[in-house]
Amino acid sequence: MKVQFYGVRGSVPTPGKHTLVFGGNTSCVYVWLQNGDDIILDAGTGIIALGDRLINDARPITIVLTHNHWDHIQGFPYFRPIFQPERNILLIPGAVDCDDKDMVLRQMSGSNHPVKYDQLPANICVNESLALKKAFDIGGFNVKTQALNHPDGGTAYCLYGDDKKLAYVTDNELAPPDEPRTSWQQWLDFIDGADMLIHDAQYTEADLPLKHGWGHSIFTQVAQLAVEAKVKSLFIISHDPARTDEELISVEKILQEKFGESLRVNCAREGVIVDLESMDINGQ
Ligand SMILES: [Zn+2]
Hints:
This protein is an alpha/beta fold.
């Protein structure tokens, strides 16, 4: 199993000289197996460049969404395969509280967008029921789900394939002010022994209490969770739009000094490829 980060930023895209190292595109992660089976996690602006990669690959596309906040769907209208006739695209939306499971499509309606979703040439199927299941299969992947602690809900995923386990948990507040949808212990069980955990940590301790309840975790909490769950490698994602490269490098150093003996920990960088077999990290 290999993983490539196409978008690692939370909330809003952040182009500019202060985000050149980690990247400014919003959430999108591409995962593929040795046999070529693949899954796209989230459709933030990072999916636009991924569309350029997949445009000449005629195979069906599967996009799995955690939830419908803008930073997880806003790249979809510019994902070039949706304009290809005969292209089959399966969309699996996260389990959100509101009755708008197809929001990824309906953002292309009304006065929001010039091309309407019902005019798209591709064969796009939205399967609303899969993320409600505890487990399902997509190609060579076995997928397990868990409810995110996030405003309006959402779904975390564990992907199993090539005898590896990848956990994708964003956006998620490990210690929300109200009763969590998923407790600390339930997270430990869900991510237990994962070869790679990709987890949201948008905040530092200094960001709280103002942002308590906004649905994101702080760095040290996430690293502690990963250590307790015996995760092999942690990649922090959903970087705060105001966090500069310099600040993220500093965060990374703090985490490596504090947790580095029992955990490989990095802040995710756009473009980086991780091979879960060798744990080689390319492009960093
Ligand atoms: Zn969100």
